[in-house]
Amino acid sequence: MSASEAEQDLSSDERAGLELIRESGGIHQSDFWKELDISSRKGSRIAEVLESLGLIKRTETVYNGHTTYYLEPAARDLDFAMLMAGDMLSPLIGEEEINANSNAFSQWLMNLAYEEY
Predict the structure, then answer these.
(1) What is the pLDDT of residues 92-111, one digit of tens each?
(2) Domain positions in the chain
(3) CATH number corresponding to 3-73
(4) Residues 78-115 as b or e (16 or more Cβ within 10 Å = b)
(5) Considering the entire predicted model, what is its pTM?
């Protein structure tokens, strides 16, 4: 099951939890349930479900003198299709300065245009 398929079956509380983890970039479980305004027990269950679906990574840690978990978003399957024109990767990847007059950029744009037809 892909990450997007797994997300479709989440409850509203699980979706809110996943969104919080993604927006924060990572949060301690002891703060997680407080932010969601739910019980620690329910927060733990949500974190366990999200981890079992591969949507988050849960790492044991010590925070404020207590053992807890650090919850962070799992790497998602990345789709590079938007960066491709035919079999050519965008020449702008990794460039600090964009030169719209470059030959590589012109070829990439032409491939994009021809792809439509």
Answers:
(1) 777 667 677 778 778 877 88
(2) 3-73, 81-116
(3) 1.10.10.10
(4) eeeeeeebeeeebbeeeeeeeeeeeeebeebeeeeeee
(5) 0.63
